[in-house]
Design goal:
The chain is α/β, with parallel strands linked by helices. Helix content is 42%, strand content 14%. It has one domain (3-357): Arginase, Chain A (3-Layer(aba) Sandwich), CATH 3.40.800.10. It is built from twelve helices and eight strands. It has an eight-stranded parallel β-sheet, with helices on both faces. The longest helix has 31 residues, at 120-150.
């Protein structure tokens, strides 16, 4: 940051009360800082066209933003973390509008497939338009992410369904020639396509396998996946390492510690780590309205402990996404999502101290 921006940020920080109620005028976590003054830039992507069960994830970024006004800003692991600045860009009205136009068409495709009484031409025409829009969204996320990275920001994406992460992963390859993905998820997301959608939320990790710079994918918490995905894991020649929810629980029941299991997970990761955090990796009591909730899963602190072990190992968290938060009919899912986002952002700051320090007032 240049001297004038830094001085202006000092003045804002001096007059800001982190202990008081939020007066952020709609800014993430009620923080007073502008985009230019913030170390972390959050790109929201309101998209849920290919979700296959419950709807609402397109509203996830707005729900998180709204709930973030109630998040207390003290983090004992990174005191005064708020001073670095975490800024969410405006939620794209254009992509929300396109989502709202295409989502009913996707639902109609799903309905017609279930009925099985209509020719494939009608379905294929609708599929083509949706797949094309998904490709355009990927390109948009790529371009926006690349711009933010080149602006010197630490960057994260907030969805939306899980497919929104792909463009961001690809943008990171311009800066990092080798990185691993830590996938926290109830699902493997390794289907080549799902319901005809080439860019389905169920295919994002399959698509990530085509990124040469992604050297390893470490999946944690899987508990709902198909035979195709299981075979793809076993045939990956250890490029994919999976720690299923069942396997983790059985090890814990036999007396192993979560610390030991976490250290094994960390050992499987390369030096640079991208975290893709699907909220359904958590126990569904914490995310009941997510697109595809599954019994089982983690408490938030279990996963924060894992991420802490990554940082303590000397590995670097280069970026993250948080996806599949859906607000439902109350604020609970957004509330949990906002707190997960706050902790992930602080871990990103802690893992990149030199870059983050340039934004301290």
């Amino acid at each position: 940051m240049n001297r004038d921006l830094l001085e202006n940020k000092r003045k804002k920080a001096a007059s800001f009360d982190p202990n008081g109620p939020s007066h952020g005028k709609g800014r993430l976590f009620g923080l007073p800082f502008t985009f230019e003054e913030s170390a972390i830039a959050i790109l929201p992507v309101p998209w849920e066209v290919t979700v296959s069960y419950q709807h609402g994830t397109a509203l996830g970024p707005e729900a998180i933003l709204r709930a973030s006004q109630q998040v207390d800003l003290y983090d004992p692991e990174l005191q005064n973390a708020w001073k670095y600045g975490i800024y969410m860009l405006d939620i794209s009205k254009e992509w929300m509008q396109r989502n709202n136009q295409l989502r009913p068409r996707a639902l109609e495709i799903q309905r017609l497939r279930e009925k099985g009484d209509i020719g494939m031409v009608q379905i294929d025409n609708a599929l083509d338009s949706i797949n094309q829009a998904c490709r355009e969204l990927e390109n948009w996320v790529y371009a926006q992410s690349e711009r933010l990275i080149n602006h010197g920001k630490l960057v994260a994406v907030v969805g939306g369904e899980h497919s929104v992460s792909l463009g961001f992963m690809k943008a990171l390859t311009n800066k990092y020639r080798n990185f691993g993905i830590l996938q926290i998820d109830a699902h493997a997301d390794l289907r080549e396509a799902y319901e005809g959608f080439e860019y389905s939320h169920a295919s994002v990790i399959y698509k990530a396998l085509a990124i040469e710079e992604v050297s390893k994918i470490v999946q944690v918490g899987l508990r709902d996946y198909c035979l195709e995905e299981a075979e793809r894991m076993s045939q990956s020649r250890e490029r994919i390492v999976s720690f299923s929810d069942q396997a983790i629980r059985h090890r814990l029941y036999r007396g192993e510690t979560w610390t030991a299991i976490c250290d094994e997970i960390v050992e499987a990761l390369p030096e640079n780590v991208y975290i893709t955090f699907d909220i359904d990796g958590l126990d569904p009591k914490l995310c009941p309205h997510t697109g595809t909730p599954v019994p089982g899963g983690f408490e938030t602190e279990e996963l924060f402990f894992l991420i802490r072990r990554i940082i303590d190992s000397g590995r670097r968290i280069i970026a993250f996404d948080l996806v599949e938060v859906a607000p439902g009919d109350n604020d609970w899912d957004g509330n949990v999502g906002a707190r997960v986002l706050f902790r992930l952002a602080n871990f990103l700051l802690k893992s990149n101290p030199e870059q983050a320090a340039s934004f301290l007032p």
